[in-house]
Amino acid sequence: MRRAPFGVAPDGTPVELFTLGNTEGVQLSVMNYGGAIVSLRVPDRDGNPDDIVLGFDSLDGYLNHSHYFGAIVGRYANRIGRGRFEVDGRRYQLPINDEPHHLHGGSPGFDRVAWQCEPFRNGPGEGLALRHTSPDGDQGYPGTLHLEVRYLLSDRNELQVDYLATTDKPTVVNLTQHSYFNLGGPGERDVLDHQLSIAADTFTPVDCTLIPTGKIVPVADTPFDFRAPVSIGARIGSPDPQLEYAGGYDHNFVLRREGAAPIHAARVTEPVTGRTLDVFTTEPGLQFYSGNQLDGVAGRGGRRYGRHSGFCLETQHFPDSPNQPLFPSTILRPGARYQSRTVFAFGRVSP
């Protein structure tokens, strides 16, 4: 593992870049600011490595833009309606940072803090443990939350992400990883020709402000049917209110799962390079976001990240769960432990 200076956070904390590698030519770079994945180089079908995540050449890019590039987001990933929720009859008000709702833990969320980092090894794999303590009342959330996120890169070309958290008061927790992927290389072309499948028979529709209606509906006969592989762009322009609300896909899919073990959630194939991405998770949901709000920001190497330049597959609990009684609970109580695992597995297919 290598570590190198990467700048200074707004609070004066030194920011470092940690680079992990494996025997198969995969290379992962993570900074302690936001726990963000800055670079992820993966070989194509011919063995040529390229970066498959969107990002910036320097810390300034991450400080000056708010698309959550590569970051750990929380305390609550995704949206909480009107920033309000109750736990045990007590009401809490969170800041509104995505009018009229609360998004990705507020401002600053965990994407805007410097995490403590410690490299480790697990068998042949290289890893990085990131730790952070969120104080009671942080962004309006109750309880002091102790967090650990562990990245582990294995020689099987798997990036395992483990999330752990404990609290001293009842609170709500929902953590995820917010990398934008482009398996063709970052910003070289859009992702609309990527072939995507999602192991979900249902999804949670949203209203015009992107808050779930509380219903869980079948994907059959809708543009949200990814049960068999289909290109991201095949139906993204369909005259469907759900797509119109979001400007594309920005929806939670209800994964087929039994038990607590990680299940296969999604597979993506890029036809030109042959790169593949498989996602496995212990989470009940997967937010598929097709990069609808990317606005031409200048990214790594001066490339412009326009609309649909990358996609996110955010493993998670459902949006607005604290206000939706039919959704799985996100309440964490003292004495219990929040624990979640997601695995991103990279491969190659022949022409």
Indicate the topology.
Elements: E1 2-8, E2 14-21, E3 27-31, E4 37-43, E5 49-51, H1 59-64, E6 71-73, E7 79-80, E8 84-87, E9 90-93, E10 102-103, E11 116-122, E12 125-134, E13 145-153, E14 158-167, E15 171-172, E16 176-178, E17 195-198, E18 200-204, E19 217-218, E20 230-231, H2 241-246, E21 250-255, E22 263-269, E23 275-281, E24 285-289, E25 297-298, E26 304-305, E27 312-316, E28 331-332, E29 338-348
Antiparallel strand pairs: 1-2, 2-3, 3-4, 4-5, 6-16, 7-10, 8-9, 11-12, 12-13, 13-14, 14-29, 15-28, 17-20, 17-22, 18-19, 18-21, 21-24, 22-23, 23-29, 24-27, 25-26
Structure report:
The protein has 351 residues and is mainly β. The protein has a single domain, classed as Distorted Sandwich (Beta-galactosidase, Chain A, domain 5), CATH 2.70.98.10. Helix content is 3%, strand content 42%. It is globular and about 60 Å long.
**Rg (C-alpha, Å):** 19 Å
CATH class: Mainly Beta
Classify the helix fraction into a percent range: under 10%
Query: First CA to last CA: what distance?
Result: 34 Å
- Taking all residues together, what is the mean pLDDT? 96
Q: Which blocks of ≥5 consecutive residues have pLDDT under 50?
A: none
Question: Which architecture would the CATH scheme give at its second level?
Answer: Distorted Sandwich
Estimate the strand proportion: 35-45%
Counting DSSP E segments of at least 2 residues, the number of strands comes to: 29
Brief summary:
The chain is mainly beta. The protein is built from 2 helices and 29 strands. The protein starts with a strand and ends with a strand.
